[in-house]
Amino acid sequence: MSTTFLGQLDLRTLVFDGAMGTSIHACADCTPADYIGRDNCTDILVRSRPDIIQRIHESFLAAGADVVETDTFGTNKLVAADFDEEMVGWVYDLNVKAAQIARAACAKYSEPGRPRFVAGSMGPGTKLITLGQASWSVMTDSYREQARGLIDGGADCFMIETCQDLLQIKCAVTACLEALEAAGKTVRDMPILVSVTMETTGTMLLGSDISAVVNALRPFPIASLGLNCATGPTEMTPHLAHIAKHWNRPFSVIPNAGLPILVEGRTEYPLRAEDFSTAMRRFIEEFGANIVGGCCGTTTEHIAALRKAVPWTSTKPSRAIELPVPACSSLYTETEFRQDNSFLIVAERTNANGSKKFKTLLDAEDWDGLASMAKEELRDGSHVLDVCVDFVGRDGVRDMSETIARFVRQVNAPLMIDSTQADVLEAGLQHAPGRCIVNSINLEDGEERMNRICPLLKKYGAACVALTIDEDPQAGMAKTAVRKLEIAERIHDLFTRKWGLDESDLFWDPLTFTIATGNADDRKLGLETLEGIRLISQRFPRCSIILGLSNISFGLKPAARAVLNSVFLHEARSRGLTAAIVHVSRILPESKIPPEHWQAAQWLVFDRRGAERPEGQPESFDPLLHFISLFPDGVSVVQAAPIETLGIEDRLQRHIIDGEEKSLEASLDEALKTYSPLAIINDYLLAGMKTVGELFGAGRMQLPFVLQSASVMKKSVAFLQPHMERVGMDAKPKATIVLATVAGDVHDIGKNLVDIILSNNGYKVHNIGIKQSLAQILDAWRTTGADAIGMSGLLVKSVTVMEENLREMNRQEIRVPIMLGGAALTRHYAEGHLRKVYQGELYYGRDAFEGLSVCEAMATGTLPAINGEIDARLAKRAAVDAKVKANALRASEITAVGVASKSNEFDTAFPDTANCDSGATVGGLLLHDNPIPDPPFWGSRLVERLDLDMIYPFINRTALFRGQWGFRRGDFDDAAYSKFLADEVEPILTRLKGECRQEKILRPAVVWGYFPCNSLDMDLIIYDPVDQDREIERFSFPRQKAGRKISISDFFLPTTSGKCDVLALTCVTMGTEASVRAKSLFERNQYTEYLYLHGMGVECAEALAEMWHKRVRMELGFSHEDDPKVERLFQQHYRGSRYSFGYPACPEMADQEKLFRLLKPERIGCVLTENYQIDPEQSTSAIIVHHPQAKYFSA
User: 286 CB contacts (<8 Å, ≥6 apart)?
Assistant: First the structure.
């Protein structure tokens, strides 16, 4: 049996040690003096206190670890320089000493058949090379010195860990390879392991997703790839699933003991040893993990538990691995070489030799301008950027470095590094964290260029374009299909056999030449290229084929070039072309090209002349001349007329419809020369708003764009107001409305949207705010003489308040028209019930535009028409209800089990009680055989300093984008809607995340706790955390009247069980600043930003509640049962349930008072309104049930 590290890794799963830092800080005999004046530099202890470090190693080995990592996480020259130059000089010796200490510990515990190993720890350091904080040469030198010391100290392998930057990994791997070569060793002697850190955001620190990681690192001689740090095991699951499926070598998983938080000044990790090992066992059994261990917060107890889960006699796990798909990657994500429904689009304009604009910007060293050009190419649909800075008289190395350094951070696209100079290519590769494509190699000077470029491909893991050019003095640039294939075969042999590179990383460029010269020798060049593509694709099916497409049409007018390029691309793709360097916005589908133009281009490509001329054409027919004749001067692609070219009437409407503020005042000034201010408002601006409403109603305009239009409308009216005053005009409103959120309700977003739409459509609105009593509403109505009242509310309780208000208005004989709206109010309840309650006119507004429709009818005297529509809806509903009842009656006659026994849709987790006596409760039937969790503390705690980046991954994007922000799918299909969200909406979220973080708009805080409890029928009795026999609170939850007859209390052990159960409670808030900022935006007429910020605050509160529920599951020891995908947590794919007061299972809002008495959320700034809602609005509370059968249900 092999006793080498690789030999053992090939036999079984290896267990690494736990957290070195956690262990050091737990050592009572480690004093500040031990750091030799270098505070918190734990690596220095190998010099000052080697006894402590060896003791820690031995404790993990005694717990069962196969491998211990050296105490050298930060022992490289760059990190040492942050302390002092003396420590820089110690780097080599510290690494040697650290490896020797670990080796001595392993020698004590190694046994025959059970060898122990030393992994040389190499951390990320303090400099991010992709951000320009260190150069390639400096960082490589820093790691090389560390690697030398680890080799000489006797380490068995390198562990490059906690990696945050793909470019840093490439540097570290390069340094290890260079150090091994200098020591006369290879990666078989001392393998290289890499472990990256995926943050709670779902990416590495700089934004790389796991597909980019695997793609960028696959070409390197890495023995194992894995994850460590930042999160607990559960959060790593989706990333590990990808690695297990797509990485064709061993992989590792070394998580923290859960997600860390700061509690009372201490960093705490909630995952206990047994729960940690249970979660880790899944990675071995389901995914086939080859290396397991612990990172921050893991102790010898965690490793001992892990050792039990991975016995010494375990065998090497197996897993199914998919063949790698050839691809490149940006810093952020992977792009496959073969696109399913397209070709790989390589942008041609980021090239100094192909774009005058790019060359001009480069010469001016306008680096930001160059990045903007790159972004334009991506917006047009490009997948990859061809970057060429070759420019006579300039420093190509510097230009490439400056350009790539910006592109990789600002543009999410893989790069094709394009240059004739090897040093320029290498400069680009040293700045690109993702996997690049090099353009290009050829045989123009024999093998000389390949000898210079292929080593770079191996060193930096790049793919490559190969041109079909050789050293033939007459026919070097292959023009015939046969010559193209001959050269390709020769290059392929050198590429794969001599240099050992993978053929799937080859892009053949069989060259294309213009067919627009008129020379007889050039007529067939396009046809030869097409045939060359066919031959090469058949000969080398695993390779890609690319063309610089625009060469085919060189010399023609732009319109003709667009058509010929599009037709030639079509023909090339049908023969095997997989990629093209193009100006993608000028490639047209066949459906957008006139048939006669398409056909004429085909005649030109296939040189249809003479005997092969098209039918009906004269003998002298020349396909080139015919094609040119179709494009006289001035023919171009039709584009929408710019707003400034429109007539003033259309221009005013376009300002409103497009939400366009640019040149708004100039347009209004011009309009005032012809029209009065009132005419401008009523005839043109309001006409634009009417179109906006129609577009919104048809699902063709999203709510945020509606608010942009409203903002422009508001500014237009404000601009025109002084002109009306000067000429004695007054814009009389169509009607006056009072709007209010009802008593006890702090939610105002819906009401404010109605205000925005009405006030910008000619109505006078008095928006009197939130938590308004009926007396305040009626006082505003009487004071303003308003024509109607609008009442809004979010929660179920608010609907009750609305009904009480209506009954009181009846008693006062008030008959003013009423509009009602809000999330908890349904159309049927408003129109079918509340209209009967109220003795005046009452209307339901699903959204702001339905409210506008009601007001328009009121202003124009056409309310009877709306009343008729309501009556028709109610009649139709009554007919449907009658039919349903009749069907149910017939069904009950057929079977004894009628529809009444069907469970609520959320009740499927519960045992069937259909055969129980009518008075039976499900509490006696629920199984209580699950172990009662042991909470980490009794009572309550609070946390006030939370990192927003930990919360953001738990944002429910569907709820935010569709629900809060109103970005509806409308006419989009799935693909188009996804693209719209990615291109338009995700950038808004990214911007708001940054603003909320930097400006401290969101200030998250949590209070949570665990309380002993028991159930007594429908009551849940809460006991004192200290004196667990003393009742301190009691909740009473309703029981379902039919079906399974469930109550929340049933999920807890009854008082007759003789032991206590545990109840978790939470209250979270995002603070008051979000409300203050949102109100300010509203008052400044920045309606769209108001909508965005309000929704962001609400959904971040929900995200924090979701995140803290996960923490509670972690603290109670069953978070390993969670679905690894965060979005599935929103659908209750976890154990237990979280219930909030006011919802069906626990509808009594007054129970908030009991929760507040237990948790005291006043400590984090939360208070209750008279209707028991939490203020600030961006807050929420919950009771958490751990029982496995607990799910949502209606009581």
Answer: none
Contact 1011, 1158 (CB under 8 A): yes
Convert the pLDDT of each residue in 37-83 to its tens digit. 998 899 999 999 999 999 999 999 999 999 999 999 999 999 999 99
Q: Which of 334-343, 445-454, 1147-1156 has the lowest average pLDDT? A: 334-343
Q: What pLDDT does 341 receive? A: 75
Spatial distance between the Cα atoms of 239 and 248, rounded to a whole number of angstroms = 15
Give the Å distances, CA to CA, from 358 to 95, 104, 403, 547, 1060.
48, 60, 11, 21, 73
Phi, psi at 941, each rounded to 5°: -135, 165
What are the CA-CA distances from residue 150 to residues 71, 174, 294, 972, 1134 (Å)? 11, 15, 22, 57, 44
Is the pTM above the cut of 0.85? Answer: no
Q: Are strands 384-387 and 415-418 parallel, antiparallel or unpaired?
A: parallel
Question: Sign (positive/negative) of CA torsion 606, 609, 611, 614?
Answer: positive
- Nearest in space to 994 (alpha carbons), one of 201, 196, 434, 129: 201
Instruction: Say if CB 1019 and CB 1049 are below 8 A apart.
Output: yes
Which of 240-244, 284-288, 618-622, 751-755 is least confident? 751-755
Tell me the C-alpha distance between 620 and 629, whole Å. 15
- Quote the CA–CA distance of 188 and 1002 in Å, as a whole number: 51
Return d(Cα 545, Cα 577) in angstroms, integer. 5
Distance CA 552, CA 601 (A): 11
Greatest CA separation found in the chain? 108
Contacts 24+ apart (CB under 8 A), 627-636: 627/560, 627/564, 627/600, 627/601, 627/603, 628/556, 628/557, 628/560, 630/560, 630/596, 630/597, 630/600, 631/556, 631/557, 631/559, 631/560, 631/563, 633/557, 635/557, 635/559, 636/558, 636/559
Distance CA 22, CA 26 (A): 6
Residue 85 one-letter amino acid: E
Residue recorded with tokens 């009846």: 810
pLDDT > 50? residue 514: yes
Sorted by sequence, the CB contacts under 8 Å of residue 1190 that are 6+ apart come out as 909, 1048, 1051, 1136, 1137
Query: What beta strand segments (E) does 126-205 contain?
Result: 157-163, 192-196
Nearest one of 163, 146, 164 to 155, comparing CA atoms? 146
End-to-end CA distance of the chain: 64
Strand ranges in 806-897 using DSSP code E only, listed in sequence order: 818-821, 842-844
Q: What average pLDDT does the structure give for the chain?
A: 89
Q: List the structure tokens of 489.
A: 């075969």
What's the rounded Cα separation, in Å, for the pair 810 and 800? 16
Beta strands (DSSP E) in 650-749 are 736-741
Provide φ and ψ at 433, rounded to 5°: -70, -30
Task: For residue range 1046-1059, list pLDDT tens digits in order.
Answer: 899 999 999 999 99
As a three-state string, the secondary structure of 1067-1105 is EEECCCHHHHHHHHHHHCCCHHHHHHHHHHHHHHHHHHH
Cis peptide before 722 (omega within 30 of 0): no
CA distance 343 to 580: 7
Whether the link from the prior residue into 329 is cis, omega within 30° of 0, is: no
Do the Cβ atoms of 548 and 509 come closer than 8 Å?
Answer: yes
Once rounded to an integer, what is the mean pLDDT over residues 550-570?
93
> For the stretch 489-524, what's the b/e string if a residue is b when 16 or more beta carbons lie within 10 angstroms of its beta carbon?
eebbebbeeeeebbebbbbbbbbbbbbbeeeeebbb
- If DSSP codes are grouped into helix, strand and coil, which group holds residue 424? helix
What is the C-alpha separation between 384 and 386, in angstroms, rounded?
7
